[in-house]
Amino acid sequence: MPVDLSPMIAATTHWLLRAYPPTGGVFGATLAEAQARQAATVAAWLRYPTALDAGLVTMVGPGGSARLDWLVGADTAPPAEDEHAWRSWVDEVVASWAACLLGDEALAAAAVTAVKGSEHASGIHCDFRRLVRPDEKDRKAAALLRHPDLLAPVADLHRGPLRERLNLDSVEAA
Questions:
Q1: Confidence category of residue 173, pLDDT binned at 50, 70, 90
Q2: How far is CA 111 from CA 30, 38, 42, 142, in A?
Q3: pLDDT tens by residue, 28-53
Q4: What distance in Å separates the CA atoms of residue 26 and residue 89, rounded to the nearest whole number?
Q5: What values do phi and psi take at 76, rounded to 5?
Q6: Where are the domains positioned within the chain?
Q7: Among 132, 84, 82, which residue's Cα sits nearest to residue 105?
């Protein structure tokens, strides 16, 4: 039975959207949220590929957003009481990997290919089109969320382990 990673995915998605706000009103916010959620989902499935991995992180908790907040300058004031709960469910590695995927479509495509046969994707249809093939409306709505230079401080935290997980460094060396 797959363990539900949705609280972590939702919190990490929310953090990404707070750190890199969408443009274009309600429609733009919806498009940006879809992209951030797809990136966080793929990143979570890569980070916690088995039900055992997912169960362990669900039991002990993912760690929170404190370091990420510091990196993007969102730590100038303590979080409001109602923000503390969701921020505790943000996973730093998942957020970093999601930032990598949002900033690099080729990396996103490799990650989506890697999770297609995972325990999490078993028996369901997964369409990560907005992540791997964003159209002009997607790009415009998520201009900050997909900007490699803006994402770099977060993406660079754990880019190496993501590339290792996807076996990309050994492929490029060959």
A1: very low
A2: 23, 11, 7, 20
A3: 999 999 999 999 999 999 999 998 99
A4: 25
A5: -70, -25
A6: 6-173
A7: 132
- CB-side neighbour CA atoms (13 Å) of 94: 36
Tokens for 103, please give them.
Answer: 């900033």
6-19 vs 81-88: helix axis angle to the nearest 10? 120
Which pLDDT tens digit goes with each residue over 94-136?
999 999 999 999 999 999 999 998 888 887 888 999 999 999 9
> Rounded distance, CA 13 to CA 35, Å?
9
User: What residues have CB less than 8 Å from 46, skipping those under 6 apart?
Assistant: 97, 111, 114, 115, 162, 165, 166
